[in-house]
Amino acid sequence: MGKAILLLEDGRCFTGKPLGAEGETVGEVCFNTGMTGYQEILTDPSYCRQIVTMTAPHIGNYGVNPNDIESNKIQVAGFVVKESTKIPSNWQSTKSIDSYLKEQDIIGIQDVDTRAITRHIRDQGAMNAIISTIDSDLESLKKRLAKAPSMCGLDLAKE
Hints:
One of its GO terms (molecular function) is carbamoyl-phosphate synthase (glutamine-hydrolyzing) activity. This protein is α/β, with parallel strands linked by helices.
């Protein structure tokens, strides 16, 4: 398994392992403190263009199933977890969280301190971030992140 980087707009950097698709994604970093409901969160249109950080330490325990979706596709720009479950355990599960993210080309990062990320964005305020599984050069990531539009004033209802 390779390396993944989460770089926040203010320069704070977290290194972990890839989750989901390989590549790069940019969005406003936010957090969710729910212990369950990750599939609903991923498919909730209110999280469009956001990189969602889950504070619960284990995500993916009960897998993914077609009954627990909020829309016809994953809406988040990226997904951040402490640890993902590789083999889910639920009779309704049809796939793992990793497989689900890969199928829909969503980039994520795992094995990072999600509570530290949450405290940081809570204290510092809303900001953009970039997740990359293909580039570990912080200067080039900073340049791409600087070009990302702010969420402020975007008309996401059209998407």
